[in-house]
Fold:
Amino acid sequence: MAITLTRSAAEHVARFIQKRGKGVGIRLGVKTSGCSGMAYKLEFADETVDEDVIFESHGVNVLIDPKSLAYLDGTELDFVREGLNEGFKFNNPNVKDECGCGESFNV
Structure:
């Protein structure tokens, strides 16, 4: 089981944590939402909790709760720039279908 970051995503997270002046990594998860059933949660983590599963990728800690890991196992998080837009992109091999707007998915 693993969650990874591309070098671009890791550099973006590291810069943001440094700018904030605190943080232990990035926390990923899923929640029930949207028209396809599930949506990604992403936030900067200031501390770990006992149930966190922690992966290290390019020097950045990726924290995830065990329940979400079943849906995110094998996912690569990328940070992309497309024209004037930039943001995180989840490359999740478990996704069977996504909604038209790209905000939710099902496995």
About this structure: The mean pLDDT is 87. Helices lie at 7-20, 66-72.
